[in-house]
User: Fold this.
Amino acid sequence: MSEPEVLCRIEGKVGRITLNRPQAIHALTTNMIALMAQALLAWREDPAVELVLIDHAGERGFCAGGDIRMLAESGAGDGAKAREFFFTEYRLNHLLFHYPKPRVAIMDGITMGGGVGLSRPCRFRVATERTTFAMPETGIGLFPDVGGGWYLSRMPDHIGLWLALTGARIKAADCELLQLATDYVESARIPDLKAAILAEPHRTETILTEFEGDAGRPALAQHQDEIARIFAAPSVEAIVEGLETAGTEWAAEQLKVMATKSPQTMKVAFRQLQLGGQARSFAENMAMEYRIGARVVQRHDFLEGVRAVIVDKDNAPKWSEARPHDVSEQTLDAIFAPLPSDQEWSPLP
Assistant:
């Protein structure tokens, strides 16, 4: 009998969730998400549980994102399973965001996409020297979901928009700079850290201070002013123009990277962050992201992006539009439009 994809149990006074799909770097399935939500709901009012700890089995990383192949297979058909995935995942994201008990996420290794959706709502977010954070969705014709519209739009100096458009990978020091991580602990000390938290969950904040290491200087800081200036532009097209005229090596690198992304979903991400930054609640943001997800998953760019990057691995996607300028406002309006009332997203009660 195979092990469950997520291990949910109570250890002492801690509700412990361990992602257990190491061969896929814990890429989330609908079943994994449902198991986590079920456990969190059971623990929410349980006085025996003081804190929730989210970690992962194996060495390869915390969570690489969602089950992209399943989403593409569903999107190529009627899209029902993909919509179920997004609906369930976003409910889990919202549950974690408003959860009444402290949550600790151990972001040791790859933390991307769906992994960000699990870790970012947690009160304590622990990075290590192995942590690599990214929201790389525009490279496969998707968008930075799981609350990206809320979190990325609230980062300083338009860095969230830069992360969304380029899919840039950043390390622990940058994660601390952007408050993606609250603490840095060397990976060799993580087992002892977890043991200490399990033994005395009420001392978690103090324990993290005791284990705190030095992540070093954030590499991002040297480009922060340039990002702030160029990515403040009012459109993706204007950002591209600003990079073209900047005349720096860094700007040239960003142009090269953005040229590989889906122009359509870069413009989707731009509007998503605009609207997410104006959202009055996390639930409002998630309802907006569900509308996008329900539609984008069946569009050409996502199916083509998965083919090029994940299935055939030729890394030569043929996007529906060649440049951001070619993506019409009508296309974007259709992607963001409200769904029929019986199909809209709603949070768990």
